[in-house]
Write a structure and sequence with these properties.
The chain is of the alpha+beta class and 283 residues long. The protein is 37% helix and 20% strand. It is built from six helices and ten strands, in the order αααβββαβββββββαα.
Length: 283
């Protein structure tokens, strides 16, 4: 194997290992130019998910290095110059057992923390509040059933508005989700038309919104992130405007959240109240 062939492999390995320390290159709640690795973990699920990601990267790196060393050794040791008369051996019991057992052990190393993380992210037993998320072509609708049962739509702001107001192009929305810190929040998701996917990297959430079905997960935002805006996007190909379904979540203190709920109940009351029905007069 020539140096030219090895260089891309070494460069990729360096990029992966550098990306393990994502805190140096990724901002909280949003992507950064030339970002390597994951965004900073915020929620308890995100912290565990990042640990699992780090385990997988080191495991993959170890496998690649071992396989590369074996290939280089085979090229060196069994070249025609050093081994002009090749062995006629067709079976080697120890070798065959090893290349069967080792992959099984690797899968077990991956499976155990994977299942633990899966069940940890599945649902929360005693949630403090519930947020219902409804995917639509092409925007999100949010319902707060525990805070007066109001509803509002969240649409991406246009590029001119984003530039004029100094907001993030393709990420900021007119009505962001507002969530209190230090609160166990149940998230339930569905869709009104096609399959969407509500993805929020810093909270380690990526869950499909499926028509006719409720999917559930949960999150908790620590108090130190009050005032932080978290960004995500729809991660399921849902139609021509799939790229224009951003998600914006603003974390606030519990006091600020209580004040926002009062304002939101008035602001979005017309969107949740049924239209008046005109009844014909008997006269």
């Amino acid at each position: 194997m020539s140096i030219k062939m090895l260089f891309p492999i070494l460069l990729l390995g360096l990029a992966v290992l550098t990306g393990l320390d994502s805190s140096a290159v990724a901002a909280v709640g949003q992507p950064e130019p030339w970002q390597l690795g994951l965004q900073d973990a915020v929620s308890p699920v995100a912290v565990e998910g990042q640990k699992f990601f780090t385990l997988l990267v080191w495991l993959m790196t170890a496998v690649v290095v071992i396989v590369l060393v074996l290939l280089l050794y085979a090229l060196f040791r069994f070249s025609h110059k050093r081994n002009p008369t090749p062995s006629r051996t067709t079976h080697h019991t120890l070798l065959e057992v090893a290349w069967t057992v080792v992959p099984v052990l690797i899968l077990l190393i991956i499976a155990i923390p994977s299942f633990r993380l899966l069940y940890f992210a599945d649902h929360v037993e005693d949630a403090d509040m519930t947020l219902k998320i409804i995917g639509k072509q092409w925007y999100w609708t949010y319902e707060y059933p525990d805070n007066g049962d109001f509803t509002f739509d969240s649409l991406m702001i246009d590029e001119d508005t984003a530039v004029a107001e100094g907001k993030k192009r393709l990420l900021d929305v007119d009505n962001p989700v507002v969530l209190p810190v230090d609160t166990d929040i149940r998230l339930i998701m569905t869709s009104e038309d096609v399959i969407h996917s509500w993805a929020m990297p810093s909270l380690f959430i990526k869950l499909d919104a499926v028509p006719g079905r409720l999917n559930e997960t949960w999150t908790r935002i620590p108090a130190e992130f009050a005032g932080t805006m978290f960004y995500g996007q729809c991660s399921e190909l849902c139609g021509v405007n799939h790229a224009y379904m951003p998600i914006a979540v603003k974390a606030v203190t519990k006091e600020e959240y209580a004040d926002w709920v009062k304002t939101a109940q008035e602001q979005f009351a017309s969107a949740t109240m049924p239209a008046a029905v005109s009844v014909a007069s008997a006269e």
